[in-house]
Amino acid sequence: MPDDPISVLIADDHPVFREGLAALLASVSGIEVVGTAATGLEAIDMALDAQPDVVVMDLQMPRLNGIEATRRLAAEAPSVGVVVLTMSEDDGTVFAAVRAGARGYLLKGAEQEEVVRAITTVATGGAVFGATLARRIADFFAAGPPAAEVAFPELTTREREILELVAAGRSNAQIASALFLSPKTVRNNVSNVFAKLHVADRAEAIVRARKAGLGQ
Description:
Number of domains: 2
CATH superfamily of the largest domain: Response regulator
CATH architecture of the largest domain: 3-Layer(aba) Sandwich
CATH topology of the largest domain: Rossmann fold
Protein name: DNA-binding response regulator
Keywords: DNA-binding, Phosphoprotein, Transcription, Transcription regulation
Domain HTH luxR-type: 148-213
Number of helices: 10
Shape: elongated
Domain Response regulatory: 7-123
Strand order of the largest sheet: 2-1-3-4-5
GO molecular function: DNA binding
């Protein structure tokens, strides 16, 4: 029926904000809050079950962050629109959310009317990102395609070179020989790579590197 209320699921790990937003939206005519979730995994499970029109999604949540939860929902429940409501406005986070499939992006300081308008717009198939964020998204695309992303940008050129050989299955001795480095230098660089990638051992580093296309 055309007069059916817009069903909304709220996902946020802060109970005061979550329940406050739920109460606020429940008081709005034409919106029905069908549930609240405290983690990313809970948000996915509840959204797949309830199939709401819109999920209002925080990004910083335990057991799966909001960007990954948005990506999963876009793949598994494409009819569910996601409006991100978060504290973060840095470009990397905004574009990561957009790439994941979010159709709305608002900051937590947004007025009630702006949140309701975003929910309504996304529920009817539109997209909304707030005036400031929309302008930055337009500037981003107007600047043309970005340079190709480099895997593991936190690594130095030397560390990336060594990780490439680690991913190819080379031992430290083989790497030292191939790059004309001392075994100690290779060991130090390998340790730095493990620390920067937050991996426990060589096997885990190889898995991470090969997923990123290294060592093929």
